[in-house]
Amino acid sequence: MTPAPLVALVGNPNAGKSALFNALTGARQKVGNYPGVTVERHAGRMALPDGRPVELVDLPGAYSLDPSSPDEQVTRDVVTGAQEGERLPDAIVVVVDAANLDNHLRFTLQLVELGLPVIVALNMIDLAKRDGLTLDPAVLERELGVPVIPTVAVRRRGLDELKEALAKTVQSGAKSVRPGHGAVSDDIATLQRRARALSEAATVSETAVRRWTHRIDAIALHPVFGSALLLALLFVMFQAVFAWSEAPIGWIEDGMAWLGGAVGGALPPGFLRSLLVDGVIAGVGAVVVFLPQILILFAFILVLESSGYMVRAAFLMDRLMAVAGLSGRAFIPLLSSFACAVPGIMATRTIDDDKDRLTTILIAPLMTCSARLPVYSIIIGAMIPARSVGPGIGLQGLVLFGLYVAGIIGAFVAAIVLRRTVTKGESSGFMMEMPKYQWPRLNDLALGLWQRARIFLKRAGTIIASTTIILWLLLSFPKPPVGSDVSPVDYSIAGRIGHQIEKVVAPIGFNRDISLALLPAMSAREVAVSAIGTVYAVDNPDGDAGEREIVTNLRRRWSLPTALAFLMWFVFAPQCISTIAITRRETNSWKWPAFMVGYLFALAYIAAGATYWLAVAIGL
Amino acid sequence: MNVAASIAPPIRLSQLPRHRASKVAAVDWEMLAAPEARRLRELGLDEGVGIELLHQAAFGRGPIACRIGRMTIALRRHVAGAIHVFP
């Protein structure tokens, strides 16, 4: 069977390419990776009006065929047929912003010269009109010699016409001639002039309309109000993560309790029941309750990004980031890292300067990711008294805020030091296109959140469930001989490993429970919670399962200095296999992930130790 | 006064009053690092292109935002210093 024709979506950043891709393929998308590089491959299927299937691939946004980042390299290599793991496309759909023809036509001209069948999607034609710009697609069609279809991807307009044009262009699988390399002009200045002349010819009328974007920017980029707005947005974002998640967390807890009860009732008492109910269900449940918070955080970040505000935030933060030797661009991946360092580190790809990008990757794990929340919440809830320290300020909230700040300050200082030592180099520039503001599309937001939720639940169901089971087994065997006064936990394999770890971490105030939890928590930070729960469940099989049991035990067995040291440890420690793996992939070496793990563990050890001894010294 | 305006010597973009539409007179490409210069060209900066200073970030030393052609671009001050515009 011959594969379906391949159509590549290509265009400048901010042309609305991904919106068009979503509109054309809906939820039928597959995210993969190009071999050997760290660039994601977004592909999906759609049907032409005549029923033929087409494979659509959304290539990274690029400004020209002269790549300056790995992303742009992939775009060039795919359209020239040089990309490993990808066929030469049967056709290219060039997505251009109708309001920005001067610029986007330059890349279009280059793509047309390649010789592949091309269709131009004159996208966001409605916004161009709103800006007082009237265009004549027929002129463009004549001058470029390819079909030009006006579209409004976010409103699903022009899609049928685009599919019609594709059906005509993509003929019965016959490949056009392979384009010759080097035949494409790379003189940007000349191309630019041609693009401008073309754009002028296609413009029927242009009236100056005071653009909405300018009105919003007058406040959003204002030296005083803009910074205040950014702070307010960040405050609302973190506030919402806690305030809005209370109710859904309650539902999940009830659901898990019901499930535990149902499974417990169906099984005879014994090892299997305790493994499933106290181990797997309680362990996975302790982590899944954080899904609402993670989704709320991601929802804010997706909205900030798709509305166009994120670049404004980068603009406002550039001055501050420059102090740390970074640019405003680094702010976007770092903010995403508050949700999860993995997408955060992937978002560093837009930073063109290597040293800049590397520094950002190395400090991204210091942003308090959502996986730390389960750990922080349970320890703070158990060990920090819920009293008020001022009007509307609770001590528990203050401690949590302090942990976030500790991470940010740690990252800032680390960046300053790194930029002077291992990632030394010229301070890089800051140059970014500021897209027009747009209402985020509910569909795109839902799709983004769905993808995140799926990844998180899959992780909870696989990594977390399996580490919990393994830990359970290691904690349960071998059983101490009858009549021995050694506790089952201390006698088990895990207990013995824990004792070795304890020798290393005892000086910083860590007890046996923590030593046992540290190793499984390498798979993911939130596992620390279920691991501690597992230790207590094995220790005392008759106790309640779940969070309440953990809290009771924590209060009985932990001192406050130990709890504080444990919290500080988690501010710095790189306890996350996924982060280490993504760093390996993104830096294409073992050297940098190894360095990252080393310096973060060293920081964690020092910070936890200092906290412990300080707390002991002041008599906490 | 048009005559006087057109013969007035070009000034740096950073000296242009905010929200005054102008045109690029010349760019000191040599003052810029090669990737910077290329990115600027890709963003459409060229002699004769319409340009306007839109925003300056806080504290006087942060980046600036300007309109180049129909795009809004954020750039740092040393880059803005390399762009000469008609006053």
From TrEMBL, chain A:
Tell me where in this chain the FeoB-type G domain is found. Answer: 4-172
Subcellular localization(s) per the UniProt record: Cell inner membrane
**Topology in membrane:** Multi-pass membrane protein
Predominant location category? membrane
Name the GO cellular-component terms.
plasma membrane
- Matches recorded under CDD domains: FeoB
PROSITE patterns referenced in this protein's UniProt entry, alphabetically: G_FEOB
GO molecular function annotations of the record: ferrous iron transmembrane transporter activity; GTP binding
Has the keyword Cytoplasm been applied to this entry?
Answer: no
- Spell out where the chain crosses the membrane: 219-244, 256-272, 279-303, 323-346, 358-386, 398-418, 456-475, 563-582, 594-615
Q: Which UniProt keywords apply?
A: Cell inner membrane, Cell membrane, GTP-binding, Ion transport, Iron, Iron transport, Membrane, Nucleotide-binding, Transmembrane, Transmembrane helix, Transport
Q: Name one Pfam family in it.
A: FeoB_N
Q: What is this protein called?
A: Fe(2+) transporter FeoB
Instruction: Tell me what organism the protein belongs to.
Output: Stakelama marina
Q: Lineage of the native species?
A: Bacteria, Pseudomonadati, Pseudomonadota, Alphaproteobacteria, Sphingomonadales
From TrEMBL, chain B:
Keyword set for this entry? Iron
| SUPFAM superfamilies in alphabetical order | C-terminal domain of transcriptional repressors
Originating organism: Stakelama marina
Q: Which GO terms describe its molecular function?
A: transition metal ion binding
Q: Which residues form the Ferrous iron transporter FeoA-like domain?
A: 11-87
Q: What is this protein called?
A: Ferrous iron transport protein A
InterPro entries attached here?
Answer: Fe-transptr_FeoA-like, FeoA_core_dom, Transcriptional_repressor_C
Question: Source organism's superkingdom?
Answer: Bacteria
Looking up Pfam families in the UniProt record yields:
FeoA (PF04023)
